[in-house]
Specification:
There is one protein chain. About 50% of the residues lie in helices and about 5% in strands. By secondary structure, the chain is mainly alpha-helical. The chain has one domain. The strands form two sheets. It has a two-stranded antiparallel ribbon. Strand 3 and strand 4 form a beta hairpin. The longest helix is centred in the middle third of the chain and has 17 residues.
Length: about 170
Amino acid sequence: MLEGSLYPIMNYAALVKYNSEIKEDISSYINIMTQETKNLPADDGALVIGYQEILLRALSQERFLELYPKSNRAKQVRDLLNSYTLYTFYGLNNTPLFDYDTNKMVANAQRGYNGVLQRLVSVDSEFLTKLDAFMDVVKEAKYEKTAAVVKWLEQNVPTGADAAIK
Protein backbone atom coordinates (compact mmCIF):
# COMPACT_ATOMS: atom_id res chain seq x y z
CA MET A 1 0.00 0.00 0.00
CA LEU A 2 1.44 3.35 -1.08
CA GLU A 3 -0.06 6.81 -0.87
CA GLY A 4 -3.36 5.40 0.36
CA SER A 5 -3.71 3.07 -2.61
CA LEU A 6 -3.54 -0.67 -2.54
CA TYR A 7 -2.10 -2.40 -5.57
CA PRO A 8 -0.56 -5.79 -6.28
CA ILE A 9 3.14 -6.29 -6.83
CA MET A 10 3.85 -9.28 -9.03
CA ASN A 11 6.33 -11.80 -7.69
CA TYR A 12 8.70 -11.91 -10.65
CA ALA A 13 11.26 -13.85 -8.60
CA ALA A 14 8.96 -16.88 -8.86
CA LEU A 15 9.40 -16.79 -12.65
CA VAL A 16 13.20 -16.79 -12.68
CA LYS A 17 13.27 -20.58 -12.59
CA TYR A 18 11.79 -20.56 -16.12
CA ASN A 19 14.48 -18.31 -17.61
CA SER A 20 16.21 -21.15 -19.44
CA GLU A 21 12.95 -22.13 -21.16
CA ILE A 22 11.83 -18.76 -22.46
CA LYS A 23 13.07 -16.21 -25.00
CA GLU A 24 16.09 -14.13 -23.98
CA ASP A 25 14.20 -10.84 -24.00
CA ILE A 26 11.51 -12.13 -21.64
CA SER A 27 14.14 -13.68 -19.40
CA SER A 28 15.98 -10.36 -19.27
CA TYR A 29 12.70 -8.54 -18.57
CA ILE A 30 11.92 -10.92 -15.70
CA ASN A 31 15.38 -10.26 -14.24
CA ILE A 32 14.86 -6.49 -14.45
CA MET A 33 11.43 -6.72 -12.88
CA THR A 34 12.60 -9.13 -10.17
CA GLN A 35 15.13 -6.55 -9.05
CA GLU A 36 12.51 -3.82 -9.33
CA THR A 37 9.88 -5.60 -7.23
CA LYS A 38 12.19 -7.16 -4.63
CA ASN A 39 13.57 -3.75 -3.74
CA LEU A 40 11.25 -0.93 -4.79
CA PRO A 41 13.10 2.23 -5.84
CA ALA A 42 10.76 4.68 -4.13
CA ASP A 43 8.25 4.89 -1.31
CA ASP A 44 6.02 7.79 -0.33
CA GLY A 45 7.67 10.21 -2.78
CA ALA A 46 11.20 9.35 -1.63
CA LEU A 47 14.00 7.30 -3.11
CA VAL A 48 14.75 4.22 -1.01
CA ILE A 49 17.64 2.83 -3.05
CA GLY A 50 21.09 4.36 -3.40
CA TYR A 51 22.22 6.64 -6.18
CA GLN A 52 24.61 4.05 -7.63
CA GLU A 53 21.79 1.49 -7.67
CA ILE A 54 19.62 3.96 -9.60
CA LEU A 55 22.32 4.25 -12.26
CA LEU A 56 22.97 0.51 -12.46
CA ARG A 57 19.27 -0.21 -12.92
CA ALA A 58 18.99 2.47 -15.61
CA LEU A 59 21.97 0.93 -17.42
CA SER A 60 20.34 -2.49 -17.28
CA GLN A 61 17.17 -1.03 -18.77
CA GLU A 62 19.12 0.82 -21.45
CA ARG A 63 20.94 -2.40 -22.34
CA PHE A 64 17.63 -4.26 -22.63
CA LEU A 65 16.36 -1.67 -25.11
CA GLU A 66 19.57 -1.91 -27.15
CA LEU A 67 19.45 -5.72 -27.29
CA TYR A 68 15.69 -6.16 -27.71
CA PRO A 69 14.23 -3.05 -29.39
CA LYS A 70 11.38 -5.08 -30.89
CA SER A 71 10.52 -6.98 -27.72
CA ASN A 72 6.91 -6.88 -26.63
CA ARG A 73 8.29 -5.64 -23.29
CA ALA A 74 10.26 -2.71 -24.77
CA LYS A 75 7.57 -0.16 -23.93
CA GLN A 76 7.45 -1.23 -20.28
CA VAL A 77 11.24 -1.04 -20.01
CA ARG A 78 11.30 2.32 -21.81
CA ASP A 79 8.74 3.65 -19.31
CA LEU A 80 10.88 2.33 -16.47
CA LEU A 81 13.98 3.97 -17.95
CA ASN A 82 12.06 7.26 -18.22
CA SER A 83 11.34 7.03 -14.49
CA TYR A 84 14.95 6.25 -13.64
CA THR A 85 16.12 9.13 -15.82
CA LEU A 86 13.96 11.50 -13.77
CA TYR A 87 15.17 9.91 -10.51
CA THR A 88 18.76 10.44 -11.66
CA PHE A 89 18.54 14.03 -12.81
CA TYR A 90 15.83 15.40 -10.50
CA GLY A 91 15.27 13.00 -7.60
CA LEU A 92 11.76 12.81 -6.12
CA ASN A 93 9.64 15.26 -4.13
CA ASN A 94 10.84 13.98 -0.77
CA THR A 95 14.40 13.29 -1.92
CA PRO A 96 15.28 15.95 -4.49
CA LEU A 97 18.67 15.83 -6.19
CA PHE A 98 19.27 19.42 -5.10
CA ASP A 99 18.35 20.42 -1.54
CA TYR A 100 15.33 22.71 -1.52
CA ASP A 101 16.88 25.13 1.00
CA THR A 102 20.52 25.29 -0.08
CA ASN A 103 20.20 24.34 -3.79
CA LYS A 104 23.26 22.12 -3.24
CA MET A 105 23.44 18.69 -4.86
CA VAL A 106 23.00 15.89 -2.34
CA ALA A 107 26.48 14.72 -1.29
CA ASN A 108 25.62 11.02 -1.64
CA ALA A 109 24.50 11.63 -5.22
CA GLN A 110 27.75 13.45 -5.99
CA ARG A 111 29.81 10.55 -4.66
CA GLY A 112 27.60 7.88 -6.22
CA TYR A 113 27.41 9.44 -9.66
CA ASN A 114 31.12 10.27 -9.80
CA GLY A 115 31.98 6.76 -8.58
CA VAL A 116 29.92 5.04 -11.25
CA LEU A 117 31.25 7.35 -13.97
CA GLN A 118 34.83 6.56 -12.94
CA ARG A 119 34.23 2.80 -12.66
CA LEU A 120 32.33 2.51 -15.94
CA VAL A 121 34.32 5.01 -18.00
CA SER A 122 34.81 2.43 -20.79
CA VAL A 123 31.11 1.47 -21.04
CA ASP A 124 29.37 2.74 -24.17
CA SER A 125 26.12 4.22 -22.89
CA GLU A 126 24.00 7.19 -23.93
CA PHE A 127 22.71 7.38 -20.37
CA LEU A 128 26.22 7.60 -18.88
CA THR A 129 27.30 10.09 -21.55
CA LYS A 130 24.37 12.32 -20.59
CA LEU A 131 25.15 11.91 -16.89
CA ASP A 132 28.82 12.76 -17.49
CA ALA A 133 27.87 15.94 -19.35
CA PHE A 134 25.47 16.85 -16.52
CA MET A 135 28.13 16.29 -13.88
CA ASP A 136 30.52 18.55 -15.82
CA VAL A 137 27.94 21.35 -15.69
CA VAL A 138 27.19 20.68 -12.01
CA LYS A 139 30.90 20.60 -11.06
CA GLU A 140 31.43 23.90 -12.83
CA ALA A 141 28.52 25.29 -10.76
CA LYS A 142 30.20 24.00 -7.57
CA TYR A 143 27.42 21.42 -7.14
CA GLU A 144 24.75 24.12 -6.88
CA LYS A 145 21.54 24.30 -8.87
CA THR A 146 22.38 27.42 -10.83
CA ALA A 147 20.65 28.88 -13.88
CA ALA A 148 23.17 27.01 -16.06
CA VAL A 149 22.25 23.68 -14.42
CA VAL A 150 18.52 24.38 -14.79
CA LYS A 151 19.01 25.33 -18.45
CA TRP A 152 20.99 22.15 -19.11
CA LEU A 153 18.25 20.05 -17.50
CA GLU A 154 15.50 21.78 -19.48
CA GLN A 155 17.38 21.14 -22.73
CA ASN A 156 18.60 17.59 -22.05
CA VAL A 157 16.17 16.02 -19.57
CA PRO A 158 12.86 17.81 -20.03
CA THR A 159 9.90 17.00 -17.86
CA GLY A 160 6.29 17.02 -18.98
CA ALA A 161 4.75 15.91 -22.27
CA ASP A 162 8.03 16.11 -24.20
CA ALA A 163 9.99 14.12 -21.63
CA ALA A 164 9.62 10.63 -23.10
CA ILE A 165 12.84 8.92 -24.14
CA LYS A 166 12.47 7.74 -27.69
